[in-house]
Amino acid sequence: MSSPLVTVERLTKHFRIGRNQTVHAVDSVSLDINEREIVGLVGESGSGKSTLGKTMIGLHHKTHGRVIFDGEQLPQDYSASDFQKYAHRMQMIFQDPYSSLNPRMTVGEIVGEGLRLHTSQSMSEIRDATAEWLERVGLNADHMARYPHEFSGGQRQRIGIARALILDPDFVVCDEPISALDVSVQAQVVNLLGELKDSLGLTLLFIAHDLSMVRYVSDRIAVMYLGALIEIGPADEVFFTPKHPYTQLLVESNPEPDPEHERVRESTRIQGEIPSPVNIPPGCRFSDRCPFVMDKCRHETPELLKISEEAVDRHVACHLFGEDLTSSDLAENQASA
Computed over its alpha carbons, how large is the radius of gyration of the chain? Predict the structure, then answer.
């Protein structure tokens, strides 16, 4: 694997609400993303996935920590000139294709806006590039004069992809780009991203809820819970041999694609609700919901550590990380809880 394109070191993002409360959206996250790699980021709603992605590329001010991109430390808080400097190299595909496109702008204006703002290309060159990219994402270049409301959700997401990639960025944050789409369209968008990644040499952070879809598209998977990373490893290893109890429960709760198998399968559900990011519990953040909780878990915060010298790039933040926990163990522990 090549050297990291993006290095995140103890990145923290807190939001102040009211006078005395703080939302711990992202807490001391460290992560490397290598060149031409897709890292999938999974976790429940409210775990901080989108905030992490936005903070990495400067859409949120960093509370603490740093981000190193291509060997250069990024500013703590972006100025207008910083956005001008980095926008063509780091882009974002947003979650909602309905609200992320300006309804007052034509598709041609939306896709070509980045070139107009960040390059010195002529209007004819921008039109040609816009037409080329619309064709590249599977749309008709003749539709440049249309408005977003004239397209379906899947088509709008393709417009968002074209808008992000027309600047030829090196790093793209895909913020749940398929969650607002019909199942029949999700695979088309994921396959399109995979094809563009291979042809353009992109590096992607792919944020999503669907663990099986993340496993399909990603080289590595990072699992996030309540603002912290709790497991990182190769996609197939995290999916088929998860180590952290939370990751195991996520895999267990993932529905079977075969409806016949799903009807008879005994699934293990994650008990309780994710705690408020305003009041982070002491010790392990998952201790209140974990079927393997020990007294140590309630007082000592586990660090994200490599499992063993033999393991290849497997890191887990759990006091039980050395245990071989199986799905039957999870079911038995939950039954007795």
Answer: 21
